Structure formats: structure tokens, C-alpha cells
Amino acid sequence: MTSPTTLTRVAAVRLDGVTKDFANGKQTVHAVRGIDLELQQGEIVAFLGPNGAGKTTTIDMILGLSHPTTGTARVLGLEPRQAIARGLVSAVMQTGGLLKDLTVRETVTYTASLFADTRPVAEVLEDAGITDIADRKVQKCSGGEQQRLRFAMALLSDPALLLLDEPTTGMDVEGRRAFWSAIRRDAEQGRTVLFATHYLEEADQYADRIVLISHGRIVADGTGSEIKALTSGRTIRATLPDADTDAIAALDGVTGVEVRGDALLVHAKDSDTVARHLLTRTVARDLEITSHGLEDAFISLTGDHR
Amino acid sequence: MTVTSIDPSVRKVPPFGGFSLTVLGIEIRRMLRNRRTVVFSLVLPAALFFVITGSDETWAEPVGSGNEAAYILISMALYGAALTAAAGGSMVALERALGWSRQLRLTPLNPVAYILTKALVALTMGALAIAVVNACGVVQGRAEMPLDVWVSAALLTLFCTLTFAALGVFVGYVVPGENAMQILGPGLALLSFLGGVFWPLTEGSALWHVATFTPMYGVAMVARAPLTHDLPWYAVVNAIAWLVLFVAGAAWRMSKDTARV
To answer: What is the interface pTM, i.e. ipTM, of the complex?
Structure first.
């Protein structure tokens, strides 16, 4: 047995060669095809990927709701179920997970009584801003109030790792900003946050790190600007009949040349060089330069055209 | 940025798999707040008891070590307890459909502790249903049997409710949503008629032959045995067989459902 205390800083999440297969009739579905991932304590990480990429399956394995087919998942150096039993991991799902006929306070009290140690119920209700609706039945709460209740429940045990599924869906800009500054404050205390999202902007803006997943594999892992840099090209488009494609392809930083009739499309890391060449050495006209956003990076990395 | 490291070794695991009396209390309060459950499992059996003993001209006739009113009392208590336990059991599937079971899986609560809690809720509510009918019997004053018969019949009835808690879990999974009770309510009434809970069956008749195979027959015979001193072997086999069958059915549906908690 390795004791976590002997390590100065144990990884919040560690996945080693994790795969997950599901039987679907006679076919086997490879939902996760081999993921290695290590999250450090205090990191805010976005989990980005199209539907069916394996995000939920991976999160389920981190939560110990399912076991990897091969490979191992550890949370703070523990088996996921053991980490859950110690209140070290919480998750907030987008829908469900509430009993309609309980009041807000009963729901929090119920959940609190299942842990060995929890923060006081009144304090958690206050922090989540649901003290005035504490005696309201859950079914009478709005979507936003239910979401705040889910957060209150998740923060009861003061978890070291918090998993969020599309956390700010339905929040307005103000709410979203307040939410993320609260998350950031907790992260500074050492809480690790892994959130699944399809808001690329949000991932770029609030995550320290973005993990892109597609077809059950991690296709990119880095900061928002690193991810963007991976496909940081620009496209230069110009009208140029009988273009000398070889000469253009030989320019610095050019990654692709395409001719469509009289139109010339050049993909390049350095658009300035290409533009200067086209405008000074050729008769090219109607020159246009477009840059790729994170959206393009996402599409080109995941290979999914949505 | 200074990051405080969280030391996972100082965190404790709750004792008894997260079993808590707070949860038990909230669960019982939930059941009592449900108007349909209260009407069907507490009010209806008591009303039936008054109606049947009230209209029964031979209520004073001796039966075993008591009288006919006592026989009706035990039967009605069983009916109420069975309905209550079935209602409680059907909530397991409903909670799963609502994603509450998944939420609980993200807490230290052990699945065994969860099932134990549900069983205790079913037993507590069953005990309440039995107590209500018994209290009605005392107030009315017609039922007569020795105290030890009174107590042992009530305890046996309570034990028999587990069969219907399991049936409730099973039906809850087969019939989605909140409709389970709409089937369990009339279904249990029908089974009670068939099983000789509402009136005694004529032994040897065609109906009696059918009845001996239905799930209410066995438990009714067992529950009334302290009073009637009449417990044929096939009634015991019936009671045990249906308990095993319903528990197996509930376990089977539950295990089928674990693919996505």
C-alpha cells in the first residue's frame, strides 16, 4: 500500500491507458480507446469534445460509476469509489438527481447525513444563495434554483475534485462570471475542477487547460492558446489565373495550396509572407485573409463537422 | 499562486456504509406526506375493517382462540401493510428514473445500506398500517383474542409485508413512472379477494384450489395462524415461494438496470 501522505502532491486524477468497451448486441462499441491523463491539484480543466466522444464515459470512470475495460483510474491516489466514500469527489450533473417531493433543506440535510464530515447545512444553503427557498419543495423550484441546489449538495463534503457537466447552461452572462470567480477562488484552495462543456469560448476563457477528446482519444491537451496554435493557420484567398503553385508552396510556412478555377487558396502559418509575395510578384487581386478561431481548431482536431 | 494541497488521508469514511437515521426519518416523512399512500394504506384498510365487521352479523362467532372480528382485523391489517410496503418498494424504481440513485452513488452511501433503509421504511410504514387497523379494532371493541395472539399475529403480518415490498420494487421497474401504484392498488385488492383476505374461502371449492396458488393466500394463512391454529404445509410453501420469487424478480430487474446508474 502506498500512503498518499508520503507524496508532497498527489495527482487529483490519474488515468493510465484507460479503455472502455460496451457490448451493443453482437457489436462491441469502443467508447474510450486509450486515455492517459493526469490532472494536478488546483487545476481548472475543460473537457471538450463532440457528443459521443467518450466524455461522459470517462467521467463515469473517474467517479467510479463504471470500471475501465483495461487500464486504471485513480483519484487522489485512491480507487475512485474510496475517494467518493471519503467525500473527496463531487459531481454536478445538468439534469435530474433530485427528489421532487423533498424540500430544498431536506435534500441538503439528507445528502449531508451520508458523509462522515460535512460543512454545516445552514452555511452551505447560505453560500449557494438558497436560504430563502429552503422550505420550498424541489418541484416548485426553477431550473436555476435546482442547479444552485445541486451545487450546494456537491460542496457539502468540501471535495478536492469537482466534476461539472455543462455547468453554466442557462446562466446569464453575469451569473456565469460570478460562477467562475467562485470556482477560481476554490481552485486556489487546491480544489481541482474538471468540466465538460461545448462552449469553446468558456473553455478558452476560464480553464487553465483544455483537454480535447474525440472518438475515445485525447486529440489535444494544453492551454487555450496552445490548442489554437495547433491549427493556427490562416487562409489567403486571391484571384490569380494560372498561378505558379510550386513557387507558392515553396514559400515559408505554407501548409497547402489549392486552385479552384481562377481562385487560389493558400493555407499558411505566416500569412504576411504569402500576401507580400502575391501582391508584389504576381498579378493577384481581391486578396482576403481569414484566421481560424478555436471553433476551427476544434473541428479540425476532432474531425467532426457539425 | 499558492495552492494548498489537499491531504486525502485525513478524510474519513462514514460508519455503517453511510446508513443514517436522519435519512430514515426524512424517508418516512416523505411517505406520510404522500396523500395517495396515506389514503390507500392507512385510511382504506381501517375503513374496510369497520365496514366488514360492522355488516358481519356473525362477528362474535368463535374462530380458533378468538372471534370472527379478530380474524377480519388481522386480514385487514395485512392488506394495509402489504399495500404500504408495495408503495414503498415501487419508489425505488422511480428514484432511479429520476437520477436520484445516481446522485446517491456519488455519496459514501453503500447500495446495501440504501436497500436496508428502504426495507426499514417499508417495515416502519407496514407497522404503522398494522397499528392503525389494530387501534381501530381496540376502539370498536368487537375483536377478541388473547394478547399474545394479538401481538404474534401483528409481528407475523409485519414480516409478511417484506414479500410485498419486493413485489413493489419489481412492479416499479416493469411499469415506468408513477403508474406503478395504479397497478399495485387494484392488483393487490384482487389478489386479496382471491387469497381469502376479504372473506374466508370454502375449502375444497374450485376457487379455493386457484387461491392456494396466489400470493396473498400463503401470507394470510401465516398471519392468522396464531388465531386459527390452522397452517397447512402448502400455505407455508406458498408464502415462502412468493417471497423468493418477488425478491428474485426485484433483484433481476435491478441488476438489469445497472448499465447506466
So the answer is: 0.83
Which A residues, 182 through 211, put their C-beta within 8 Å of a C-beta on chain B? 188-191
Q: How many domains does chain B have?
A: 1
The predicted pLDDT at position B28 comes to: 92
Instruction: Say which CATH architecture domain A231-302 belongs to.
Output: 2-Layer Sandwich (3.30)
Task: Verify whether the Cβ–Cβ distance B11 to A111 is below 8 Å.
Answer: no
Is residue B6 included in any domain, yes or no?
no
**Which residues on B lie below 8 Å from A165 (Cβ)?**
none
Residues A2-25: tens digit of each pLDDT: 444 444 578 999 999 999 998 888
Asked if the structure places residue B5 within a domain, the reply is: no
Question: In this complex, do A99 and B105 lie within 8 Å of one another by their Cβ atoms?
Answer: no
pLDDT tens digits along B161-180: 999 999 998 898 888 767 78
Indicate yes or no: CB of B34 within 8 angstroms of CB of A76.
no
CATH class of the structural domain A4-225: alpha beta
Report CA torsion sign: B181, B184, B185, B186: positive
Interchain CB distance below 8 Å, A111 and B107? yes
The answer to the question of residue B64 being in a domain is yes
